[in-house]
Amino acid sequence: MTILVTGSAGFIGSHIVQKLLEKGEKIIGVDNFDMLYEPSYKLRNISEFVDNKNFIFKTIDFRNFKDVESLFKEYPITKIIHLGARAGVRPSIDDPFIYQDINVKGTLNLLELARLNKIQNFIFASSSSVYGNSKKVPFNEMDSADRPISPYAASKRAAELLCFNYSHLYNIPVSCLRFFTVYGPRQRPEMAIASFTKKIDEGKEISLYGDGDSSRDYTYIDDITDGILKALNKKFSYEIINLGNSNPIKLKYLVSLIEKELGKKAVIKFLPKQAGDVETTYADISKAQKLLEYKPSITIEEGIKRYVVWYKKNK
Ligand SMILES: NC(=O)c1ccc[n+]([C@@H]2O[C@H](COP(=O)([O-])OP(=O)(O)OC[C@H]3O[C@@H](n4cnc5c(N)ncnc54)[C@H](O)[C@@H]3O)[C@@H](O)[C@H]2O)c1
Fold first, then answer.
1. Pocket test residue of 28, 179, 223 for ligand 1, highest count of atoms within 8 A of CB
2. How many Å lie between the centroid of ligand 1 and the Cα of residue 149?
């Protein structure tokens, strides 16, 4: 069995590749070192396993159908984990076209290749952002997700709908996993935990948008990879499944945890709320528990402790 992992040099992708290699799986990793953040971070992400004999890495942009098609001609790919994307809510407001191009057209390319190659399982990385500013918490997969408030969220929802389309028309088993703010070692540098930790450590000011009372359901990377691996071993005709921690954490409390682990005080500047940001995210994970026996086990206190240990070793 050979598994294609897109976005394999990214934060979540590099962790999932590592876990699969530990299990002895053969992996084709694809990444184009997209410029959302410095490619040097991504080279570091894959450095630990790039020489593994079961890992073949290709610098390919999956918007180019022919380039990805050539992989299917060369390797016996049976499953796809599609993590590659242009991530980030705020930057999507400045450049909606690239989000559409990578996240929607790119996903369509992969679905089409899944159809042509009779792929046994397709995992798609979706996002809690599809729930928009829903006031009903926790967010359940049956809630409507037709009011996304950023181009990023809209692109993820559009890709989910294409996934349904391909599953329905061509019987491709698809799991759309809605991740809730993932954090841990190798987190994208522009995400809150990574950027706050660096700035607080360097004595630089951090900006909090709103009054610090907004909350996120932060989910530790190992819990997310555990959920992805469990979904990979199932074969649903089409399911949308939340992968979160089901415990929203206020921004102010998050900052206090980072301060504690670093032993340093944050210099905080409060700024008005930003367009595209949702007030809260909160996952109902009962479906993941039922279908995947998913059970997140890392608390925010433990996760931040682990993140800061990693940060100090790698800064
Ligand atoms: N990190 C989170 O909190 C979070 C939350 C919800 C959903 N997600 C989703 O999970 C997935 C992984 O996120 P991440 O945080 O690891 O982001 P990331 O940016 O670290 O990883 C994505 C990778 O995809 C690659 N990529 C982008 N466009 C590509 C293209 N056209 N061709 C080939 N590779 C391309 C990038 O270079 C990057 O390495 C994404 O689909 C993201 O939308 C992440």
1. 179
2. 19
Burial letters 99-124, b for 16+ CB under 10 A, else e:
bbebbbebbbbbbbbbeebebebbbb
Asked about 152 being catalytic, the answer comes back as: yes
The domain locations on the chain are 2-183+219-246+282-297
Q: Which atom of ligand 1 is nearest to the CA of 84?
A: 24
Cα separation, 84 vs 68, in Å, equals 13
pLDDT in 10s for each residue of the chain, 315 residues: 899 999 999 999 999 999 999 999 999 999 999 999 999 999 999 999 999 999 999 999 999 999 999 999 999 999 999 999 999 999 999 999 999 999 999 999 999 999 999 999 999 999 999 999 999 999 999 999 999 999 999 999 999 999 999 999 999 999 999 999 999 999 999 999 999 999 999 999 999 998 888 999 999 999 999 999 999 999 999 999 999 999 999 999 999 999 999 999 999 999 998 888 888 999 999 999 999 999 999 999 999 999 999 999 999
Atom 13 (ligand 1) nearest CA: 12
What are the structure tokens assigned to 34, written together?
Answer: 């997209």
CATH T-level fold of 2-183+219-246+282-297 = Rossmann fold (3.40.50)
Q: Which ligand 1 atom minimizes the distance to the CA of 12? A: 16
Which one of the listed residues 37, 41, 99, 152 is annotated catalytic? Answer: 152
| Beta strand 182-183 pairing with 205-209 | unpaired
**Whether the model pTM is above 0.85:** yes
